Amino acid sequence: MAGETFWNNREQAQKLIDEANTLRGKIDPLLSAEKQLDDFRVMLELAEGEPPDAQTKHEAELNRDTAKLLKELDALELKVFLNGPHDRSNCILSINAGAGGTEACDWAGMLLRMYQRWAESRGWDVEVEDALQGEGAGIKSVTLLIKGENAYGFCKAERGVHRLVRISPFDSNKRRHTSFASVDAIAEIEETSSDIVIPPDEFKVDTFRSGGKGGQNVNKVETAVRITHLPTGLVVASQAQRSQHQNRATAMNLLLSRIYAQRVDAQKAEMERFYGEKGSTSWGNQIRSYVFQPYRMVKDLRTGVETSNVQAVMDGDLDAFVNGWLRAGCPLKRMQGVKDEEE
Hints:
alpha+beta
């Protein structure tokens, strides 16, 4: 980075800066933890020569600082688990309403709000790339681009079918309804990436007018872009940006990401197992249940993590479920289990 020609290629320079920041993000917390441990040792030595009242004060302060350090180490440990080839990438998150009609569309809209709040709480940027509104309420489908460090690594824990049980606000008889929505998460693959290349004759680009509440270009100029991959039939669209060029670039990244995920799914048994967890969007295939009635509980059926604070979860408090899934599926733990069996 200190070289004279570093900024000659701005795109390459930015990648190196991002890589350097990632390395600092791994090293700095370790150095900070070591310094804090040294400070704890000094504090203990000083406290030994103090009167009982002062020792009690030092003990309370030490307990508080130790709890904070353990929390920071816990977050650092989770980052170690994210060692997949694209875990550091941005994430393309899709939500689709399943069985349940209007009730399911409303449930998909609730999930959209939940994931937006969760992403924002982690400091990630969220862009709605494409959305299909429900006829009565909510959404039929939506595609989000979540930008941030390790976005895909964390978001992949949410892939699967989510079940809602509640008293339906759309039922005049106030009966309890069960609704389903599926969540899909794939890593964003940029058009400049060498992981996958699509010949120009294998995709078709269509333009159309963006939907929305109006404004400059919106509903006036065909800025929205739809790309169809002819060999596989995959279709992606983007209408979030103000220009057709930006929407085309975003849609191409979406298409590359979906094709890459599809190819990895076909080639690797581990990814086949991972994708198989999703199942159909109906009863018996859910990964998590959100029960509003007759009791209040959110439970992850893969890990057993549960909470009765349903409102907090719907407001984006998902870390307990995501972290539980990452720990349960940690490659280091699987390797340790194999080692233990061998011994």
